[in-house]
Hints:
The complex is a heterodimer of chains A (about 120) and B (about 110). Chain A is mostly beta strands.
Amino acid sequence: GAGVSQSPSNKVTEKGKDVELRCDPISGHTALYWYRQSLGQGLEFLIYFQGNSAPDKSGLPSDRFSAERTGGSVSTLTIQRTQQEDSAVYLCASQSGTAPKILTDTQYFGPGTRLTVL
Amino acid sequence: LAKTTQPISMDSYEGQEVNITCSHNNIATNDYITWYQQFPSQGPRFIIQGYKTKVTNEVASLFIPADRKSSTLSLPRVSLSDTAVYYCLVGAIKAAGNKLTFGGGTRVLVKP
Lengths: 118, 112
């Protein structure tokens, strides 16, 4: 079946502009995660959605970052007033499990959106 | 999540076995050990997961000693397409979601 998709695949923007990144998770998956990966680095957790529960925003680096998940499916990550240090690959992952299996169920990652802030 | 330490890089040749050891000295009782693989310009992909002893699937084997303070991912007879970054993660089952923390991983380069 279809995997996780993300759009756009690449985004180049100017410093100070707002950007929106989209994630379409695997159908039926209740959990959705956003991560950020800087060049040559590991992944940095940003935000987590699980069903209709309040999202876990503990990884968002600043109040310029926000995310929504509409209807328990598609998610949008918004970065306001982008800065050059925001340049990275933004990865989305979905997962089918709920507690207590939330660790052992695999996270399926999308291809990512490469954001470049000039 | 328990902190993990793994080699930065490893070189190998086609047909050889590659073993990557990950140290996780402060692993907790409820922690599982999971390995992901990431190719350039792609998101990470789940390889294997275990709790203790040995786990084997069609892709790899995972060896976990009795004290669980380390684990070894074994890739049999690697090919050029196994060139990737391999991440070791350790974390517990919890109700609040699994916020995977990836370290720098191990860059495996398979040479012809």
